[in-house]
């Protein structure tokens, strides 16, 4: 037992260990890829990563002033026309300011209308009556002067009375001239410089009303173009900030025809020519090809931003962006990433 038992037991244990290890080894099987990779359709081609976007490019709607959102008029997927309301902010303060400016303009306008309507029809008869009164007083003073001057005997009149009546005649003449001048001034109407000043005040008030109306209008954000609402990330009751945001309040664009923005590596940029033919394949559908039509180059070469997360992808390169147009009705959506193949020279 000692001579043959222990070696036999060891041999059996070794065989069991080998079988156990063999069973625990993973089996490698060849399986097809979950999605077929893109296949080049050109003898000489350049591959690129493309991003589907609106033909007007994607427009991030922003605000001129921050404020509390009170109404949202659209939802994602809505078609809007240029000038349609998108959302509005709290405008109570701006509306009150507008009402105040309108009231000030009405006061200035009525002041101008009063100057232009001068004189009032009721004021002319009163001024004419004052002229007739002054004429009668002048005639009375003249009669009194003639009576005292007609006395030939110096002893029957005093020199003082004669002087006083002469002064009374001069005073009556002055009052008559004053009444006639007042009547002429009244009939002449308002002085032109006064009307010009009142007109300038009306224009100033109108400019303030226009400014206040603009403040009210800009609290309602409208669509800058005709297009589709791609994203709506604003809700009533939220406080909207101005400036570029990580997540735009509303993203929109004209999707009647879609474009593809292809990033061509800077090393291959010289091989792509204007008008080059190209096709796009959705990610995971390498056998599907959608024809592309050259639109334009973006002349400035920029750092690469659209990444495919491929392990061999270079992230420190720069790319030339080429814009292609898709055929109408292509089953692609804005924001979708595609593989682009461009015929090279």
Plain-language structure description:
The chain is an alpha+beta fold. It folds into 3 domains: 45-55 and 257-343, Efflux pump adaptor protein, beta barrel domain (Elongation Factor Tu (Ef-tu), domain 3); 64-88 and 221-250, OB fold (Dihydrolipoamide Acetyltransferase, E2P), CATH 2.40.50.100; 99-214, Helix Hairpins (Orthogonal Bundle). The protein contains 5 helices and 14 strands. It has helices at 5-24, 92-117, 123-149, 159-188, 192-217; strands at residues 45-54, 59-61, 67-72, 79-80, 85-89, 220-222, 227-232, 239-240, 250-253, 258-265, 278-282, 290-303, 318-326, 337-343. Strands 1-10-13-12-11-14 form a 6-stranded antiparallel beta barrel. Strands 2-9-7-4 form a 4-stranded antiparallel beta sheet, with no helix packed on it. α2 runs antiparallel to α5. The longest helix has 30 residues, at 159-188. The model has no long low-confidence stretch (mean pLDDT 86).
CATH names the topology of the largest domain as Helix Hairpins
The percent range for helix content is 25-40%
Structural class: alpha+beta
End-to-end separation in angstroms reads 84 Å
Overall, the morphology is rod-shaped
Most strands sheet: 6 strands, antiparallel, barrel
Outline the low-pLDDT stretches: none
